[in-house]
Amino acid sequence: MEEVYSNIGRLNHVAIAVPNIKIASDMWQKALGASVSKPQTLHEHGVKVVFINSPNTKVELIEPLNENSPISNFLKKNPNGGMHHICYEVSDLKSASRKLQAVGARILGDGNPKIGAHGNPVIFLQPSDFSGTLIELEQVE
Ligand code: CO
Asked: Contact 11/21 with Cβ under 8 angstroms?
């Protein structure tokens, strides 16, 4: 009998790729009254990011730093920007990975966690296994 339990916790963030972070954050601020953080440059991830906090989660607007950025190709296909991924918190990535493997869901890359934009270990899941949605799982203590 298969054990039934939930791997996923809170929705940590929704990430939206944007061609111009200044234009995008101004719009979120002016039109939605959102409080937008100062832009941060994450060189090791090839992106500039702002955080938009709301009571239950946050949105991250991400702009590529250059052509080699992991979101550059996404923006070529979606020139106006668009939802890039959603991120769920998990308490244990190892157990989450085992469950994914057990049902044949694929982890991108070599399958091992990498340190994500918030300094925690993360994995990304194959979008075609999840209705075309890129899912990030972040281990949060
Ligand atoms: Co993310």
From this structure: no
Report the number of distinct structural domains present in the chain. 1
Tokens encoding 97: 């990975």
What is the value of pTM for the model shown? 0.91
What is the CA(14)–ligand 1 centre distance, in A? 7
Which tokens is 70 given? 């992991």
Q: What is the average pLDDT score of the chain?
A: 93
Q: Residue 5: inside a domain, yes or no?
A: no
Q: Kindly give the distance from the C-alpha atom of residue 87 to the centroid of ligand 1, in angstroms, as a whole number.
A: 6
Which DSSP letter does residue 107 get?
A: B
Residue 117 Cα to ligand 1 middle (Å): 7
Q: Tell me which of 60, 63, 136, 138 is the catalytic residue.
A: 136
Ligand 1 centroid from CA 2, angstroms: 30
> Is 136 among the residues known to form the active site?
yes
Domain assignment of residue 132, given as a range: 11-139
Res 113 pLDDT > 90: yes
Q: What is the pLDDT of residues 51-94, one digit of tens each?
A: 999 999 999 999 999 998 889 999 999 999 999 999 999 999 99
